[in-house]
Amino acid sequence: MSVAFRRESDDEHKEPAFELPLPPGPNLVTAEGLALIEARVAAFEAEVEAAPDDEARKRSKRDLRYWLARASTAEVQPPPPSGEVAFGSRVTYRLDGRERTVALVGSDEADPAAGRIPFTAPLAQAMMGAEAGEHVDFGGRSEAIEIVAAEPMGAP
C-alpha cells in the first residue's frame, strides 16, 4: 500500500487552532472596559471548568488566554477633558448633513451598532484632538466633519 493512503490519526487532518489575534497598539480601556474584560475572564474560567469534553475545553482555554492577555495589558485611561475629542469621549458630530453621536473606546469595548467605536478607527482618528465647533478633514475631504460636542462618556 502506498504511503499516500495511510493515515496515522484523525487529528492530523484537522484545521490547526490558532491563537486569537491581539489588536495592534496599546490596550487602552475605560473603567467600564476593564470591567468588561474582567467579566469575560471570569466567564471563560467558568467555561473551562464546565466544558463537557476536551475539544470544548481547548476552545474555552484559547479564549481565556486572549482575555487574560487583554487584562494584563489593559491601560485604564482617565476621563477626557470636556469639550475636547479624546479617548473616552462621547462625540456628537455632523457629517454629510447628518448628526450622529459615538463614544471613542478601546478595541474590546467597541460595538459600532451601539455607537461605540474603537479609538483606532479612521473616524475616531480624524476627530481626535479636535474641540467642539471645529471642522476636521475626513475621507479625503477637507473639513468634512463638524464637531458639535465632546463630553466624557460618563457625563450626562
TrEMBL record:
Alphabetically ordered keywords of this record: Kinase, Transferase
Domain annotation Transcription elongation factor GreA/GreB C-terminal: ranges: 81-149
Region (Disordered): 1-25
GO biological process: DNA-templated transcription elongation; regulation of DNA-templated transcription elongation
Pfam families cross-referenced by the UniProt entry: GreA_GreB
Record carries keyword Membrane: no
Amino acid composition bias (Basic and acidic residues), ranges on this chain: 1-17
Recorded GO MF terms: DNA binding; kinase activity; RNA polymerase binding
Top-level taxonomic group: Bacteria
Protein name listed in UniProt: Nucleoside-diphosphate kinase
Organism expressing this protein natively: Sphingomonas baiyangensis
